[in-house]
């Protein structure tokens, strides 16, 4: 049983978890940095504890402070949200050793799938399609040359412990390989403390498709459909939707089966996402995220399943509430990430929100922890809201998206809303004719 949940996070995801806990009748604890004293998740929680200064390393990444906060307040479970410590196996391990329930997968699953080179090897052994590439991290530039020559250019170097595009370099031919290899290793070392990189074939115009998976402690694993995350800039997602306009029911079934195979291979429990690249009718494993995703509301809207409440129930030992039998997505949903940033240069734009008006009407949901007069701190991610729209089909969803984006008013800081308005008016986007390269062409005009 779980009675009190500490949320080891901030912003809209912390508030989202608190709301789920309230529906389940559970008490909540908010932790916050000094910069987040006036945050909504602090106001809505039953208890709150300041865990340090504004800097993440001294607050939201401070494991000992978070564990102490749980012990002081009597929390018997910790939900990490996404980002910060959500995919930190050591943190999950410490939480368990302190006899506190970690609302997420096991430390072993986090470790096995968190290292991208090991995850790729695990996927291969589980019979999941992978792109041609190196067997694990590269030992030298000479090995990189050998593998690249064998599979053919272009190739891509990726940090084994990486994410968000850091430690990643594309090579069109052999002349670029040595410089890219050294740069990727140096960047990986700085960002993740591990210099290991691996190499694989580079697809030039793929879709980024991810499958939402869920496992319980009773051995059941389900796939809850796909999200198309191809609209992204520098590997940072801007818009996500489900179902994907490029995926047929046959491909969905194959992709879902492959995702379940991989989860079974690692004994996966709780929420997770298997990410694939999809091109020319074929899909290839890319990585796994061992946590709830930023874009989880998209899946919630087309499945009717509250993924956060399901996380808590599963962590408490309950069976998945997802019905057995054929699973079908209902309607169409999209999520637009509303960031506090310049819509042209993409530079972060923290500051005080002077006016804040949220859109409404049928099929519109906004997940946010912002409000009028709220000061967006410069220390954290620039996400201030997630606009989620749903319709009976993609065309109705797009119509509602255009309406909602026109209604959404944020004054005092620059946001990505103008950019989203332009994207939903773009003919290629409307027709579903795009890949991960969409933004490169779109920004060039």
Description:
This protein is of the alpha+beta class and 445 residues long. It has 3 domains: 4-87, Rossmann fold, CATH 3.40.50.20; 132-201, Dna Ligase, domain 1, CATH 3.30.1490; 207-444, D-amino Acid Aminotransferase, Chain A, domain 1 (2-Layer Sandwich), CATH 3.30.470.20. Helix content is 34%, strand content 26%. The chain contains 15 helices and 20 strands. The protein has helices spanning 11-23, 40-44, 63-73, 89-97, 107-114, 116-125, 141-151, 177-192, 249-266, 296-303, 307-315, 394-407, 417-423, 427-430, 438-444, and strands at residues 4-7, 27-33, 47-52, 77-79, 101-102, 155-159, 169-171, 197-201, 207-215, 221-233, 236-242, 270-279, 282-289, 332-339, 351-352, 355-357, 364-368, 375-376, 383-391, 409-411. It has an 8-stranded antiparallel sheet, sandwiched between helices. It has a 5-stranded parallel sheet with strand order 3-2-1-4-5. Helix 4 packs antiparallel against helix 5 (107-114). The mean pLDDT is 96.
